[in-house]
Every structure is written in C-alpha cells, then in structure tokens.
Amino acid sequence: MLEHNNQALEPEKLFSIFGEQLKGIGKMLMCFDKLKECAYPKRIWCIFEVFTATHSSIPTTVILPDVAGADVSTLQDLTQVCHVDAEKATATVETDAVTIKEHIIKKQKGYEHVNQKVEKELLAEVIHYLEAQRAPVAPTVAPTARAAHTTSAASAASAARGASESTDELVKPPSWTQCNLQ
User: Low complexity: which segments have biased composition (predicted)?
Assistant: First the structure.
C-alpha cells in the first residue's frame, strides 16, 4: 500500500522517499520469476520502482533463475520479455494501481513516457544478463584437488590460496532460484 511509517502517502511523496532510499542503497534488483511471460513488467509497483530508479539514476540489475536465459533466442522474444504497459499493469491492492496510474498521468508525462523509460532499462539489463549467461567460463580446479597433489600442509594451503585468488573473477554470482512477486 502507499504507506510510509503506517501513514498513507501521495505517490509524489512516495516517489521521493523511495528514490532517496534507493540512492542510499546505491542499486536496485529487479527480481524476475522467468523471462517469457514474466510477471515483473506487468506489476505497477515494479514499473513504478524501475521508473523511480531510472529517474534517480540508480543502477539496476536483473536477477533470474539459472534456466531463464534459454527462454529468449530472438529479438522478438527479447522485446516481448521487456514489454511494459503501465496502463494495463496490476497491483494486489487495486487502490495502489489506481493511485500510481494517476500519478503517472498527472506527474510523469503519461504512460508512454514511463513505458519507454522502463522498457529501455529492462532491455539493457536483460541483455546484460543474457550476455553474462552465454559468456564462456574457463574451467577451474578446486583448491582441494590441487592440494591433493602436494606433499605438505604449507604447500596445500599455498595452492588453495593461489587457486582461489586466480579464479575469483571467474566465479559466477550466486543462483537466484526464487523471487516472490506479490
């Protein structure tokens, strides 16, 4: 609901508060459940949050389950995944949807402006995600495997440190397997 500290807020105030909170955090995660037929760009709160982040120049990052990249293989797939229609977007609390949509019409240059800004951000982040998923990752040797070939504890520790230090940039981010969109 449009509340802060248990008090109802106008979207303009919430827009400001949310933007300031994001600036303090320095980034925003967009949690997709999947790519095709994703719920995220159909939720007015998600659209509002991405728009607020882009309006405030806050970097965003999309997170998805590991298998999600296989869903997109063409440019048409990509544009469908990132399509935003704020006018048709929904919210669990209907009054939130109505209030945010009124804010978009009256204060944010209308639906088309918001749709374009959010779609641009989604496209950039989904492309970045897909590129990262498709980039070849060099195989790594587990530190314990290297350590098994050494003769002393000191050599094992040294090998483990070396393997760890040399492969840090090759490690993929943790897998995000669940996102709860309400």
Answer: 152-165
